[in-house]
Amino acid sequence: MKKVIEGSQAVAEAVRLARVSVISAYPITPQTHIVETLSDFCSDGSLDARFLKVESEHSALAALIGAATSGVRTFTATSSQGLALMHELLHWTSGARLPIVMAEVNRALGPGWNIWTDQTDSLAQRDTGWIQLYCEDGQETLDTTIQAFSLAERVNLPVMVVLDAFFLSHTYEPVDIPEQEAVDRFLPSFTPRFQLDTNNPCAFGSLVTPDAYMEMRRSIAEGMEAALDLLPEIEERFAGIFDRRWAATEAVQCDDAEIILVTSGTVTSTCRELISDLREKGEKVGLLKIKLFRPFPVEAIRRILAPARKVAVIDRNFSFGASGIFAQEIRAALCNTRGHPPVFGFIAGIGGRDITKDVLEGIYRQTQMSDNPEREDIWIGLKEVQNAAERS
Amino acid sequence: MDKKTGTPREVSLFIPRSYLTTEGNKTGSWRFLRPRYEEKTAPCSAACPAAEDIGRIEMLTTQGLFKDAWEAILRENPFPGVCGRVCFHPCEGACNRGEFDEAIAIHVIERFLANTAHRNAFAPGVEQRAPKKQTVAVIGAGPAGLSAAYFLTLLGYRTDVFEGASEPGGVLRWGIPSYRLPRAVLEEEVRRIEETGVRIQTGKTLEQRDLDTLAKEYDALFLACGHGRPVALGIPGEELEGVEDGLSFLREIREGRMSKLSGRIAIIGGGNAAIDVARSIIRLGGKALIIYRRRRQDMPAFGEEIEMAIDEGVELRELRAPVSIRKDGGDLVLEVRPMKVAGTDADGRARVEPNEETTEEIRVDRLFTAIGERAGETWYEPPDAGPGVLRLDHCVMQQKSGNIFVYGGDLTNGIKSVAHAVASGKEAAMALDSTFTEGIESVQPRLAACRAGAGPALSMEIYMQGPRSDRSPHVVTYDEINADYFQFDPRVKQPRLLREERAHTFGEVTLKISANLAIREAERCFNCGLCNQCDNCYLFCPDLAVKKDSGTMGRHIDYDYCKGCGICAVECPRNALILEEEDDYEKGH
Predict the structure, then answer these.
(1) What pLDDT, on a 0 to 100 scale, did the predictor assign at position B585?
(2) Which domains does chain A have, with CATH numbers?
(3) Which site from B135, B263, B512, B584 is most exposed, i.e. has the minimal number of CB atoms within 10 Å?
(4) Residues of A in contact with B1 (CB under 8 A)
(5) Which residue of B has its CA nearest to A193?
(6) What pTM does this model have?
(7) Contact criterion met (CB < 8 Å) for A223 and B14
(8) Per the CB < 8 Å rule, is A97 touching B12?
(9) pLDDT tens sequence across B501-558
(10) Domain annotation covers residue B55
(11) What residues in chain A have per-residue pLDDT under 70?
């Protein structure tokens, strides 16, 4: 059934359909609508789950670690500072191999206090062992959230479903909400590979000496690698039931493209329009949408980008002292390939500033006119500012 | 899928998991702080002159154990029905909940428990000791005398009470109007005191020489003769017809000699007796005007009583000192001098002085004085310091030729309230028991050992080595309560007769509350310092070191595993746990 709903509500509908047993969360804008909707579901009986109110995001994830260890399906949602507060437990979740699913609404970190979109919060958690999936619209968000449980439970690793603040979390779009019966077929009840069991008591997460720790880390890495292989399989099965298909990476008119723009999140939709306009004018331009950031789909990216003459990466994030994070990852993916195209890194839309089609076209033209990037990060649309010290 | 075989592939899963028991890891060895269950003293029970175990009484009430709650009162006070009505409840002023939202309505619950005991004809199961050989005579069957007799009987002494009036009760029977204290309530409590074995002889007015006879028959005498004689105003015209003493007026009403009143009647005074007289006048059809030399907030009468009097139509003229009274035709003319506040007295009340030289005249039909009372006879008065005289908080003891005289009640109490009278009787009983068993030297140390908190309130349960004697005398403060565990909840409103109804009847003004309301009100109680088995310590202990048992606390700490994190003590809402440094911490670590 199609309904016009927010991206936040799409997440909540998916969590309801996934028959999650335990939800624990602490409210933070712009994530709050997700857990508000879920708490309504819990109170009106449409979702039979324990909703744990806690005093912080750290506690929210700690509570889910306990619940997930007991072998049930779990969910939380957060954003920005809330995710940062979870940092320690993000590592714990993957180390304990718990298939927790989280919706992460990208929001800028303060100060300056800012509630608008910016990917730095989730990308800063790239080394915590969480699978990360960046969504473009409401339908993809709903479908990805359902798939996330399947993926997490197959590889015993946590999954973060990431969506842009407001542009996605608070935007109403028509979204097809599948039937429960169909979702049950795609996502049967969770059978854990290990769990707390009072009949067979054991302790999890105990001291591990150098003798075994490395193998445990390697096991997590293998789980991540398996996720790369399993995601297409899950997508296939999902498409078989729902007739909708998404992918870890999506190449739009890249085969003969001289310049490929690389995007993630909602800016992809704007870029799709630009590509279509430019193609009508006969320009050889393509678009690579990266949905899966962890594990990073290196092979697919190399294959798609190899024929291009130039690559322009649009980063709505920044790693201080380095460059845009997607650009870094793409450069790293390409550097061991022979004759790879130069990678232009553009920083745009930080802290919720709009990335319009004109902004994207400017990026395209700048890439077209330069042979090689003058620097690793090119900031788009910066204004003149006055230094704080000059005020006094 | 495995690319070669086409079967689902198991994803690598190598995690730290141990099937060894963790019991071998005795985390107790890490501890340098030791939590310990230690019940403490609630501020209400320390503020109660009778040291009632209020925190526990409220706890028992929440559990519906009304008989046990009522017996807990009877261990410290034989008058729950009386005190639930007329006590000025200093307990509520000390209540920690007052700093959170509103104090617990302790007196309302006390009255509820007394009502419930009466309705169900509960037979009290209060410990009574084996009979002793000594006997005691009590002179005066007011609240102090009856309390002394009651506690002495519980301690095993045969006690006879001698009362001059036709019925026992003293000021409770003759001074407090029935709209505050119905006669049946008093009679019921006196009857229960008699059932413990106390013998009361009424209509026995004693002379000073009778003391010698009694001294021969009894090992000790307790004199609680109270105040019977009004204090005079000392102004011209006091002797005129129509100028009467308020206490006699109240007594006449309680004797059933009531007559309709009319016109405007003045009352001089600011204590409870003045208020009682004024409210009685209203009920008999007169107009009442209280004249007081200081301000309303300086009146010794209880605030609630003043408020109800004004509500019922009593007029209050503050800062007016009486100068003279004269007759003018059928009227009395009271000359008063306006006063003004000039500083503060030692007791915190305003000091007043004349505001101007001129005086005002107040024309009334009758006038009552109610400015205080004194002892009826000089021999009622306790001796001043001297050989063999021992002054206690609420009594004066005197050893006289092998006999012990104890003076108590209003004649030795600073504050003249029913609760203080009970405290005086209790102190006398303890002092006599100590003297009989261990000699007079033991009195002060033994009394000091059974105080509720810092005192002066004395607990008979502690004196008799009951479970309460295990508690720490530390009085719990609001800072020591974990208020996170409580929610704002308004105090119960005690129902009252409508003002219109009150104007015509001596029927009781305040009405009873239901068991539901009593339980709900008792549930507001923090139970300061007392474990009510809330299980927070049990639930929060990260080492599962809180173990349930069948002991009095119902739980203990397993120090093999308690690593002294202190979470239990922090999460205890009511400070029933204490966290101490380990004795051997300094040398052991």
Answers:
(1) 56
(2) 2-194+204-242 (3.40.50.970), 251-379 (3.40.50.920)
(3) B584
(4) 233
(5) B13
(6) 0.74
(7) no
(8) no
(9) 888 899 999 999 999 999 999 999 999 999 999 999 999 999 999 999 998 889 999 9
(10) yes
(11) 391-392
